[in-house]
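step: validate -> pass
step: tokenize input -> pass
step: predict -> running
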Amino acid sequence: MSAQPAPRQASPLAARAAALPWNAIEHDLDEHGCAVVTALLTPSECRELASLYDEEAGFRSRVVMARHGFGSGEYRYFAYPLPAAVAALRASLYTPLARIANRWNERLGAAPRFPERHEQFLARCRAAGQARPTPLLLDYGPGDYNCLHQDLYGEQAFPLQATVLLSAPGEDFTGGELVLTEQRPRRQSRAEVVPLAQGDAVIFATARRPVAGARGTYRVNMRHGVSRVRAGSRRTLGIIFHDAL
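step: predict -> pass
step: emit ->
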């Protein structure tokens, strides 16, 4: 099993992530299970990351969604070492999100508690046999969509993840909205459509989150997907913090 290399820090991105309005992000995650971060990446950074999809090097696998019943479109998982921008975002977003994740697990009476630094969490993943990187680029064309799902790849799972829109809606594509659903106990599911501009990110619950109810805290299950792209090309960056078996 190969060791996870230390991420190469891209200091402007790390500083940008640290300066995000984390109190507001935490509030939105508690209230809605998702939080939008505007202009996390610049248009030039988006174009640079999106262009990586067309290169052969730097990826460990390619998935055609229709072959597996996942939807229509495709995605590619990055190989280690990750591109500098992806590694920096993954490491710098993790630390403030770990504090939220630990509070969520405490409210749910669930284990585990997550360490402060991402490399510590990745060491836990490797000990569980999860050593394959999970950050990915997703590519959708006309008619493509992504079925509702959860990104769980083993016993170690971080309860929050992020998606960054790399394409410009209305210019590069139409349709293709991110959709979140929340399955509440003994109630009908709730859906939320999350509009994003190019460079915006959405942070959301990977699989479940705590919700305050009349009789205390209860657990709701979350899924996410992408509605049908009507025209053009839509590319996104997915940042998942746990690695895969």
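step: describe -> The domain at 11-240 is CATH 2.60.120.620 (Jelly Rolls).
step: cleanup -> pass
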